[in-house]
Known about the structure:
The chain contains three helices and five strands, in the order H-E-E-E-H-E-E-H. The chain has about 140 residues and is α+β, with helices and mostly antiparallel strands. It has a five-stranded antiparallel beta sheet, covered by helices on one side. Strand 1 and strand 2 form a beta hairpin.
Amino acid sequence: MSQATTIFDKILSGEIPCHQVYEDDHVFAFLDIGPLSTGHTLVIPKERKAHLHELSEDSAAALGRVLPRLCRAVLEVTGASDYNVLQNNGAAAHQAVMHVHFHIIPKIHGAGLGISWPAGNLDAAEGRDLARRLTAALEKS
């Protein structure tokens, strides 16, 4: 099953211009054209996958290495001291472009990401069972 071409594929191929911030063998970063605040940066793997769990370990590790560097640069340049790093997987989770991407969104004078967090409660027995099953799944992978 082939994945539909996304705007990020077109940016990576140079078909659509962008304000590039960073590039290495595995990662590409550029400014969001619909920023929530000044410095809103998108960080994408060059590997073409829609969801984070589909990425190779090399791409995932490369993203993990560069995200802190990019966050430091965004903070330095914008003067912000607070920021969000956001990554969504799937349409129901508000993913609009089906290519893995992280948003670095500085909080500047109230501008930036606004979220609601409707926290629930974790039952102790349910938590023990869920942790056991997650550990078993990790041991299989």
